[in-house]
């Protein structure tokens, strides 16, 4: 089906004069075999042009199936982005609430509830026309020249990675099933990986640290194709295992010893004196206990059987692994061999396995509910079994000795016995073709299109603008580079908007630097003969598909002249008639130029190729319908996961409400209930938040409280230094440092309770404010003591 859409498809995309007219300026050369060779040299271009997508007037079963497929892919891409945002917020709230509980702080003091008011982004427009043009240029440049994003990935911090990945994976390259965007994204990965290898100092550290690059690779596997693969390969076995609630395959001797002891205690009716075992023993003593060994032996056999079954399923799924994931594996192997040419093949395979299993397969096995493979969190026993299986698979991929977990040495036979087939599988993953020729042709089309758009939020635009501006000296040191020119034109990055104003817009993409390609045929080195032949072929196939009941269509060999004549004489369908007239003209021109000089009904190379294409349409339709069925399942799963994430947020809301009611004074319970109703009740006003302060504190008072540990102000001026501290909302504190006689403060700092807790959790105990150095634990304790007693 490579050339079915042919040049008429390009016409529709480019809205240019016909390709035949453009190519008529060129000189026709070569024999028919040479023409055929040139036609098929641009096969990649036509493969990317779906018949149903561009031949909008055709309405047969194939066209409808392909339209349904396109719609599904668009919905999956959109839903995946929404899920990514929800997962990010759930992680944020989970970590913040954990910090608050760990520090025994009343949750009504933390400003985490503001993160719960999540709603779908609205469509709208807010950018002025000039800004739209500038940003359209900017994002076209970012999309088509992936080196900028690759460089940014190395420069940004872990704190910035989530919003960055959101824009890159789900917006700039958000069409997860569109060939051109996928290939551009993979080109960006190649650049990122090449830099990662270049900067590496030790082989063992490659691709294992938690860096923006590793996070990017993991996020890539969470896109639609990766999710679909995981569901098809792992879902059935994991669901089956999750159903065996009583299947205990624990092989850790210490845990098994505790189980044996618990059973002995139960037999003794709880009488410790009747139990001939110590309650606690060392790992070595537990591993030497005969009863423990007897308990573990059958478990180990079953565990190895289950793990072998999972590994076999994965290895047998080689042809189903998404192309992009296999291509990344190929780049890892290639870069490793270039960086470390003397490295053994088995060591190279450990790096491939680090990506494929550590970043892709094993997270889905360990947390299948997060990957939409099961409906709910597995029970304790299945969950532990899945964790052990993931460890075993990673052991085979890494050739691990289990030095950190001695008890895993008991599965060494499984590891050793599967090394050979694992290495073969990991090498086979890398055996995929490159796409550079296809991408080059796709870029020709992109430069010629007038209708490329990006569905993007205003804040995504502003955030990316800010990152580019921050790192422009590294990204584009040449002031005359395209990126530098665009950033100067667009000006400084605006501040992020409130969520209620953060509309989604359709941003038109185009390049102001590259000249538009007026003659695609010339650009792709297609002769006049190729143009005429392919356009005629495409038009006639469209006509045949629009006349399915015609006797001429079912007859063999095809009488192309009669088919075109019937179409041209169809007054009730002017579009079909126009195609028929055009087809007649093309057939006449092909004959006149001796391209089909001996054409007869029985000897017509054009008819032969059309028949071959038509013969494939049935199987193509079946393939499309199969893909539609598969993606419908993926979309249902993604939507179910979306509902699960929303339920997680609702759980947080309920939890926070209950804690607020329990932690607040009884006199405030009515207000709390009013506040709770306001969370869910549409149109109801929320109770006003009590604004506390500002309260004035001298530098000496805060130093005495242990808040300030170093003061950089000269001693003779310390008495003129004072602080104003206020709390506009629970958990938020505004600290203003002032000097007597000055109208404006020296500095103003916005502190959040959970940020202070996170600093403490990360071991950050001091905060340098230039004029003073603050003790973080002391500041936290002081703010809690001063404001919690005033809140009510």
From TrEMBL:
Q: Where is the Ras-GAP domain?
A: 180-398
| One matching Pfam family | RasGAP_C
Q: Name one GO molecular function term.
A: GTPase activator activity
**What PROSITE patterns does the annotation carry?**
RAS_GTPASE_ACTIV_1, RAS_GTPASE_ACTIV_2
Q: Which GO terms describe its cellular component?
A: cell cortex
Q: State the superkingdom.
A: Eukaryota
Q: Which GO terms describe its biological process?
A: negative regulation of Ras protein signal transduction; signal transduction
Entry's InterPro entries? Answer: RasGAP_C, RasGAP_CS, RasGAP_dom, Rho_GTPase_activation_prot
According to UniProt, the name of this protein is: Ras-GAP domain-containing protein
State the species of origin: Lipomyces starkeyi NRRL Y-11557
């Amino acid at each position: 089906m490579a050339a079915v859409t042919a040049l008429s498809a390009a016409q529709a995309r480019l809205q240019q004069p016909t390709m035949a007219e453009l190519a008529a300026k060129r000189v026709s050369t070569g024999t028919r075999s040479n023409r055929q060779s040139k036609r098929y040299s641009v096969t990649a271009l036509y493969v990317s042009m779906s018949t149903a997508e561009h031949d909008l007037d055709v309405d047969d079963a194939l066209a409808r199936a392909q339209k349904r497929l396109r719609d599904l892919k668009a919905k999956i891409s959109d839903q995946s982005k929404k899920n990514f945002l929800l997962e990010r917020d759930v992680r944020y709230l989970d970590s913040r609430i954990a910090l608050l509980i760990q520090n025994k702080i009343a949750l009504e003091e933390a400003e985490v509830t503001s993160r719960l008011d999540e709603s779908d982004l609205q469509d709208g427009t807010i950018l002025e026309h000039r800004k739209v043009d500038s940003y359209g240029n900017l994002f076209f440049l970012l999309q088509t020249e992936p080196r900028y994003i690759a460089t940014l990935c190395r420069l940004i911090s872990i704190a910035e990675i989530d919003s960055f990945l959101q824009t890159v994976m789900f917006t700039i390259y958000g069409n997860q099933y569109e060939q051109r965007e996928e290939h551009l994204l993979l080109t960006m990965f190649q650049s990122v990986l090449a830099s990662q290898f270049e900067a590496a100092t030790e082989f063992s550290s490659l691709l294992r640290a938690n860096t923006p690059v590793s996070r990017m690779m993991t996020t890539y596997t969470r896109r639609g194709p990766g999710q679909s693969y995981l569901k098809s390969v792992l879902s059935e076995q994991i669901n089956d295992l999750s159903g065996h609630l009583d299947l205990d395959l624990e092989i850790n001797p210490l845990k098994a010893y505790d189980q044996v002891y618990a059973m002995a205690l139960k037999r003794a009716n709880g009488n410790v004196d009747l139990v001939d075992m110590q309650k606690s023993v060392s790992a070595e003593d537990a591993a030497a206990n005969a009863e423990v060994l007897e308990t573990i032996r059958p478990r180990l056999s079953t565990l190895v059987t289950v793990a072998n079954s999972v590994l076999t399923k994965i290895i047998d799924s080689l042809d189903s692994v998404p192309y992009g994931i296999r291509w990344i594996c190929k780049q890892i192997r290639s870069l490793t061999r270039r960086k470390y040419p003397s490295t053994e093949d088995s060591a190279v395979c450990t790096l491939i396995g680090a990506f494929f299993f550590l970043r892709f397969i094993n997270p889905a096995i360990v947390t299948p509910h997060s990957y939409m493979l099961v409906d709910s969190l597995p029970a304790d026993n299945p969950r532990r079994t899945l964790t052990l299986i993931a460890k075993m698979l990673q052991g085979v991929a890494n050739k691990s000795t289990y030095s950190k977990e001695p008890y895993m040495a008991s599965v060494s036979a499984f590891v050793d016995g599967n090394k050979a087939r694992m290495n073969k599988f990991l090498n086979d993953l890398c055996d995929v073709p490159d796409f550079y020729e296809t991408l080059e042709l796709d870029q020709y089309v992109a430069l010629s299109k007038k209708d490329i758009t990006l569905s993007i939020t205003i804040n995504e635009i502003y955030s990316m603008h800010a990152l580019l501006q921050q790192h422009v000296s590294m990204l584009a040191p040449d002031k005359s580079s395209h990126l530098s020119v665009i950033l100067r034109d667009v000006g400084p990055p605006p501040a992020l908007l409130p969520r209620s104003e953060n509309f989604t817009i359709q941003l038109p993409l185009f390049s102001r630097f590259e000249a538009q390609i007026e003659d695609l045929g010339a650009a792709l080195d297609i002769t006049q003969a190729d143009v005429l032949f392919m356009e005629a072929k495409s038009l006639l196939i469209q006509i045949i598909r629009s006349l399915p009941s015609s006797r001429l269509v079912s007859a063999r060999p095809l009488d192309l002249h009669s088919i075109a004549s019937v179409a041209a004489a169809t007054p009730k369908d002017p579009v079909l008639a126009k195609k028929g007239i055009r087809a007649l003209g093309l057939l006449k021109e092909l004959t006149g130029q001796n391209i089909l000089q001996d054409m007869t009904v029985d000897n017509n190379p054009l008819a032969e190729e059309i028949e071959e294409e038509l013969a494939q349409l049935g199987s193509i339709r079946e393939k499309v319908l199969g893909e539609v069925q598969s993606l419908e399942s993926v979309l249902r799963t993604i939507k179910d996961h979306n509902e699960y994430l929303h339920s997680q947020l609702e759980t947080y809301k309920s939890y926070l409400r209950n804690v607020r009611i329990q932690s607040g004074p009884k006199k405030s319970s009515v207000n709390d209930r009013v506040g709770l109703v306001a969370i869910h009740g549409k149109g109801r006003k929320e109770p006003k938040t009590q604004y506390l302060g500002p309260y004035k504190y001298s530098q000496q008072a805060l130093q005495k409280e242990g808040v300030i540990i170093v003061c950089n102000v000269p001693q003779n001026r310390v008495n003129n230094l004072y602080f104003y501290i206020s709390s506009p909302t629970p958990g938020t504190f505004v600290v203003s440092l002032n000097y007597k006689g000055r109208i404006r403060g020296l500095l103003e700092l916005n502190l959040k309770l959970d940020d202070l807790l996170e600093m403490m959790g990360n071991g950050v105990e001091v905060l340098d404010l230039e004029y003073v150095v603050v003790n973080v634990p002391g500041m936290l304790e002081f703010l809690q003591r001063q404001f919690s007693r005033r809140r009510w």
